[in-house]
Amino acid sequence: MFIVDVKGEISIDRALKILKNKVVKTGMLKELRRRQEFVKKSIKHREQIKKAIYIQKIRTEELKNE
Questions:
Q1: Alpha helices in the chain (DSSP H)
Q2: Choice between 12 and 54, residue whose per-residue pLDDT is larger
Q3: Contact 52, 41 (CB under 8 A)
């Protein structure tokens, strides 16, 4: 639960911006979107492998360019 103290000098727009930043920093929005649908373990594993291959490809290209 997030708490934003709204005092006399802070506008509502500013308070909403502070709240949005807190939500983004904690990753709550990503977690909520991730939980909206069920993803099988095999598909999660496949995505992790694809991500690892992509990252490895980028790193090898960086090493070649140096």
A1: 12-26, 28-34, 41-65
A2: 54
A3: no
Q: Which residues of 38-50 are buried (b: 16+ CB within 10 A; e: fewer)?
A: eeeeeeeeeeeee
Q: Which residues of 2-25 are buried (b: 16+ CB within 10 A; e: fewer)?
A: eeeeeeeeeeeeeeeeeeeeeeee
Contacts of residue 18, defined as CB under 8 A and 6 or more positions apart, other chains included, come to 4
CA distance 10 to 30: 28
Strands (DSSP E) along 1-66, which ranges?
none
- What number is the average pLDDT over the span 31-57? 95
Rounded Cα distance, 61 and 58, in Å: 5
Nearest 10 degrees: CA dihedral of 52, 53, 56, 61? -150
